[in-house]
Amino acid sequence: MTKRTAAKYKIDRRMGENIWGRAKSPLNKREYGPGQHGQRRKGKLSDFGTQLRAKQKLKGYYGDLTEKQFRKIYAEAERVKGDTSEMLIGLLERRLDAVVYRAKFVPTVFAARQFVNHGHVTVNGQRVNIASYRVKEGDVIEVRQRSKQLAIVLEAVALTEREVPDYLEVDHSKMTVKFVRTPSLSDVPYPVVMEPNLVVEYYAKN
Questions:
Q1: Is the pTM of this model over 0.85?
Q2: All residues at 6 or more sequence positions from 116 whose CB lies less than 8 Å from its CB, including other chains
Q3: Sheet of strand 126-127, all strands in order from the earlier edge strand to the far edge
Q4: CA distances from 18 to 10, 59, 60, 184, 192 (A)
Q5: Is 152 helix (H, G, I), strand (E, B) or coil?
Q6: How far apart are CA 182 and CA 136, in angstroms?
Q7: In sequence order, which residues have a C-beta less than 8 Å from that of residue 206 and are 6 or more positions away?
Q8: Helix and strand tally (H, E) in the chain?
Q9: Residue 34 burial (CB count, 10 A)
Q10: Span 62-113, pLDDT tens digits
C-alpha cells in the first residue's frame, strides 16, 4: 500500500498540476511545491527527469497503485501487439476502480478503490471486490441495491467538474454502467496532459 491515501493532493503540488481537476486541490491556493524548498525556482529537467515525472503523474492519477503493480501493467501492455502507450492507457482504464470512478459513482479515484474493496459493486450480476479486476467490453457494472443511497454516491452523481466519457454507457437512475469499448489516449478525459509515450521510454531504459 502506498502513502497516497494520507496525502493524496501532495502529488498535485509536486507536479505543479491539478491532475484530477478537483476544486479541493491545494494547487488552487499554492502553485509551488510542498515542503520548505517548494518555492525555489526549478531547473530544467533532464530527459530522465521528464520521463520519470510522466510516469509518476500517470501512476499517481490512478490512486494507490504501487510501482510493482504499475510496472506489471506496463509489461503486459508491452507484450500486446500495437502501440504500447495506447495499450497501457487501455489497461489502466479497464480496471474496475477506474470504471467506477469514470461512471461518477464516487467522487475520487481513492474512493473508487475503497468502494470496490468494500463490496459495493457487481459485474454482470456477480459481486466483485477487487479494485484491479479487469473489465471486458460489454461488461455491466452496477452499484448494489443497498449502496445506491449512500451519501458518497449521491454526492458523486451531482458533481459537475467532470463528465462521463463516451466509451461508457451510464444510467444514473439505475446506477449501472456498461463498458462499451477500450479507450485510446484521446478518449480519456484527463484534466491534464498525460504522456504515456514518455512512460514507455522510461521503462525501456530502466
A1: no
A2: 96, 97, 100, 128, 129, 130, 131, 133
A3: 126-127, 121-123, 140-143, 176-179, 168-171
A4: 10, 14, 12, 22, 7
A5: helix
A6: 8
A7: none
A8: 8, 5
A9: 15
A10: 987 999 999 999 999 999 999 999 999 999 999 999 999 999 999 999 999 9
